[in-house]
Amino acid sequence: MTAQEKEKNRFWTLRYTLINVTYFMVFCGIHGYSSVFLLGKGFTNTQIGLCLALANLVSVFAQPFIAGLIDKPGPLTNRNVAIGSTVCIIIGSVLLLFIKDSIAVIFILFAFIYMVQMAYQPMIIAMNFEYSRVGCKINFGLARGLGSLSFAISSAILGGVIARNGVDVLSIFDIVVLFAAVVILLTFIKPSGKEEPVKDNNDISSEDEKPHNNIVEFTKEYPKFMLFIVGVVFFFFAHNLINDYFIQLIRPLGGDEKLMGYAVFIAASLELPTMALTPLFLKKFSCESMLKFCAVMFLVKTLIMTFATNMVWVFVSEACQMGAYAVLIPVSAIYVSRIMAKLDRVKGQAYINVAITLGGVFSGLICGRLLDVYGVKITMLIGSLVTVMGVIITFIAIGNGKRKTLS
Questions:
Q1: pLDDT averaged over the chain?
Q2: Residue 306 class from Cβ within 10 Å (0-12 exposed, 13-18 middle, 19+ buried)?
Q3: CA dist list (Å): 226 to 249, 345, 348, 349
Q4: 202 has pLDDT over 60
Q5: What is the per-residue pLDDT for 1?
Q6: Quick one: average pLDDT of 349-361?
Q7: In angstroms, how far is the first alpha carbon of the chain from the final one?
Q8: Residue 32 carries which DSSP code?
Q9: Residues in CB range of 284: below 8 A, 6 or more apart
């Protein structure tokens, strides 16, 4: 084995796993505890909703813009953008530690770091494929699954720590982990070498296949898929309602930050086995069947949370994550690869990511105000009705979701 071959096989999965672990630990601190942090800073539910909606909305436009810059030759690589984004979040988190009384400044800073942390997630994913093309051996599924596990463990620990020490501990936690992330990213240098061709057994493209670059052309080519995207927006309206306002939802049931941490731990830790077993499930069930199943599970999770009378039912609701979010993320990616030509697959996955983010936008704009005016029960009932609509839309869309050229 040559020196270059040894370099290409030197702990790439471990190092890429550490990038995912540190990313999702901070994701837990910023996104998982966003309401807890902002409530601790004196925000109302309406102000929290506006802050998160703004951050998600900017992220919708930032993600494709940044991806377009990276695609062009130059110094902006996936790794460099990830390093720069991490440094920006460190700066924002340090400033949040010293700003105590200005809600307006905290609003802007938190929206900024929330948006940046969301926007560079695709760069973390893209690094796997970029490095694999030059021969680096990376087990993406293992790295991503351990990232979810790190989110779960962080959530379980942070809940109790916040209950004892206050919300500023979140910024300190983020800063420490982010510094570790920068060191890991700085040492994660892609080896030089010629890119290797990647085999694609699902490639249904032909030489005369043309990409559908604008949304009108894309919708005409994949109308059922775009209808499915609408369903995803509806699922993530309620999904983000639960995640972003979790502490507000469980306090009437006797919950606190510590119990919230345990509940989120249950949901996130159950993602790992489902994601790991997805290839086995797909040998027995079609993508269409699994996507319909996950649509129903999103509804079941929301209904249980809506009618929960104590924290036991909250834990049951969170356990449904293994059949909802944990199925949607890997199966939707495979579904895209099977129904779309190669030149459209990146856009197809991007539309799913945008739909997920838009669910957060609408949830932020609407649900914070609903909680302030009507309370938890009415807000959750509306979330359940929206999810019912998402299930209906998905069942209509998925049945004939294949490309015209495959029918």
A1: 84
A2: buried
A3: 32, 13, 9, 11
A4: no
A5: 42
A6: 82
A7: 48
A8: I
A9: none
